[in-house]
Amino acid sequence: MLCKDLNVVHLNITEDYEYKALFRLCSKQECLDIDLVDVENTDMLNQIKEQFNLEDSVEDIKKILMDKIMKVTTMESRIVEGKK
């Protein structure tokens, strides 16, 4: 399987007292809950690679995930405040 085939769903970003960004990475068969901070962690990237049996390199997985997360944030942030 390739990382591009995975879906980033349920992205939740909070900025209360500390910044947190949690998301769920899913294939058709299984899901994994991940904190965005952990995407910097090589151990987490290896876990993702193993769990989803990905063919991509760890560096490619990180880049693809960040691209997917950025795409989801643009879709999720549609709140407009103030006058137009």
Give the tally of β-strands. Answer: 3
Alpha carbon gap, first and last residue: 45 Å
User: Uncertain runs with pLDDT below 50, 5 residues or more?
Assistant: none
Q: Beta-sheet strand percentage?
A: 25-35%
Classification by helices and strands: alpha+beta
H and E order: EEEHH
Rounded to the nearest angstrom, the radius of gyration is 14 Å
- The spatial strand order of the largest sheet comes to 1-2-3
What does the average pLDDT come to?
A: 88
What is the overall number of helices? 2
Largest sheet: 3 strands, antiparallel
Structural features:
2 helices; 35% helix; 3-stranded antiparallel beta sheet; alpha+beta; 84 residues
Structure description:
- The protein has helices spanning 42-51, 58-76; strands at 7-15, 19-26, 31-35.
- With 84 residues, it is an alpha+beta fold.
- The longest helix has 19 residues, at 58-76.
- It has a 3-stranded antiparallel beta sheet with strand order 1-2-3.
- The radius of gyration is 14 Å and the shape is globular.
- It contains 2 helices and 3 strands; from the N terminus they run βββαα.
Layout of helices and strands:
Blueprint lengths: L6 E9 L3 E8 L4 E5 L6 H10 L6 H19 L8
Antiparallel strand pairs: 1-2, 2-3
Summarize the structure.
This protein has 84 residues and is α+β, with helices and mostly antiparallel strands. It contains 2 helices and 3 strands.
